[in-house]
Structures are given as C-alpha cells and as structure tokens.
Fold this protein.
Amino acid sequence: MGLHLPVPGPVIGLLLLFGFLLMRPSAVDSIEPTALELLRHLSLLFVPAGVGIMAAAGKVRGEGFAIAVALVVSTTLAIAVTALVTRALMRRQMRRSRVNTPSGL
Amino acid sequence: MTQLGALWVYLAATPLLGLTMTLFAYLIAQGIYARARFNPLANPVLIAVALVVAVLSMTHTPYQTYFQGAQFVHFLLGPATVALALPLYRQLPKLRRAAVPLAGGLIAGSLTAIVSATAVAMLFGVSRVTVISLAPKSATTPIAMAIAERLGGLPSLTAVLVICTGVFGAVSARTILNVLRIEEPDVRGFALGVASHGIGTARAFQVSDEMGAFAGLGMGLNGLFTAFVVPVLLPMVLRWIN
C-alpha cells in the first residue's frame, strides 16, 4: 500500500499539519505547547543516529578529506548565493513598489 | 567495584543501557555547551555523540546493543519533524511580505548547496553511498536523515555531516557575509538558515531576533525544498556520472 513517494513520511506529515493549521488557525494554541516541548529537546533526538557513525565509519574510511572539502565549499557557496539572490530580488521588489505607489501627491 | 560490575551486567542486558547513556551524555553535553557560552564549536550533539562512542568502544559494546535502548529516543525524530510545522506556520506573515525574494533566494541557495556538495565529492571519487548521505546536508537533521534513508544513504553519516555543516556555517557566516557586503539582517539571517539549518538559526538568534526569525524561516523552507528536490535531482546526477 502507499503511494511510494520519494519524499520522507515525516515531511509529508509536516505538510499535512501545516495545511491543517492553515485551515483551522484556532488549533494552533492547543498543538503548540506539545510541539514546542518536543522541539526544545530536538538535539537529544539526533544522538542515537549520530552514534551510528561508529558502525558506519568503516564504510567511509579514507573519504574524510573529500567530505570535508565538499562540506566547506558547498556551505560557503550556499550562504553566498542565498544572500546575494535574496538581496537582489528584495531590492527589485522595493524599486517596483516605489514605482507603483504614486508618492508626493 | 564488583557492585558496579553487577550493575553494568544488569544494565547491559536491558534496553535501559542505551536510553540511560543517551540521556546522561546529552545532559553533560548541554552543560559543556552552556559553559562555553553557546559557542557553536561546542555543539551539544557532537559532544554527546563523542561521549557515547567513547563509552561504547571502551566497554566493547556493539552499536546494535546500544540502539536497542536508544531507539526509543530515535523514534521521536519522526513526530518532532512533523512538529516543525508550528514554527514554520508562525513565520507565515514574514514569508507573505517578501515571498518572491525569499523563494528566489531559497531555490538558488538550496540548489547550490546540493549540487556543489555532490559535485565536489564526486570529483574526489567518493562512494555512491557517501554522495547520497552528503546531498541533503544543508537541510535540518531529521529531514536530511529521512532523505538519506529513503534514497539508500547512511542516515548516521548524514546526521554527523548535517551537524558539521551547521557548525561550519554558524562559525563562518559572518566573515562570508561581510566580504560580500551583505548588511541587511533579514537577508543575513535567511542565508544562514538556508545553508546551516538549526545550528545557524541558533547563531542568528544570538545576533538579533529579526535575524533569528528569518533564519528559522530559511531553515524550514529549505528542509521542505530539499525533501522534494533531492529525491528527484540526485538520481539524475548519479545516472549522469555513470
């Protein structure tokens, strides 16, 4: 059974809850305390999987340097590209709204 | 000492061992993180993982034995991912105000993160499993791990890579953004959230609430975007290489 979507199940759950909140904004107040309590300890929930690196280390031995370079290059580029594109589009939006709203009248 | 030994034998035979160890390691790591004044280099997840790994290897306990207990903590990752809908919903007014610039920045930045990470790794000739585990590294940990698992990567490797990405972004973002002369706090926060998820967001909140809010928005949107793009994009890239 199921739709065999490539998207992870919890992400679909996130979208379903998000859609539900859009339809019933009044539900936010009753769900939020539980959700925030869970998210407050989010770091804890990564530990068991992180420890799995012990079992997985053998499979990536010798790839440490390549992974480190990929990580540093990609994160630097991602920060730069996100910032530059977002700023350029924000400035364009501001210019347009200035043109569209007649001022000085 | 014999008493302690007896206790250890008892604990090792029950799922309590993994659970207790995880909670204690986390508490110690939180303490160190607070002592270090929330410096991103003292990331509590990295410290807790290192502590547990050290104890397991000293006691020659296999990961499977540990995970029998720790799986109860691990299970909560799914519900916690669903719970991310709430902070995202709270950021909706900010999203509406600047929808087009944020969507454009998200798409450009997220694709850059995914494509550049896989491209560099493949240039070095790393294994397929490593490429899959690396691709979602800028998304928030629960989403990135779920993607890696779904596509045949190693979720545990992804968890560690995601955290390293977050730490690197949180430590270096200020320099990168200053070099590019990006001064707007909303843009700075958004870029930090897109590229280095929750750890970047925590760093942004240390600077200002506005920067933090936009970082949170960037983290949430990139988690979703990555979850939909990587499963489509990655098989294409891998096929193109073969």
Chain A touches chain B through 66 residues (CB under 8 Å). The mean pLDDT of chain A is 86. The two ends of chain A are 64 Å apart (CA to CA). DSSP finds five helices and no strands in chain A.
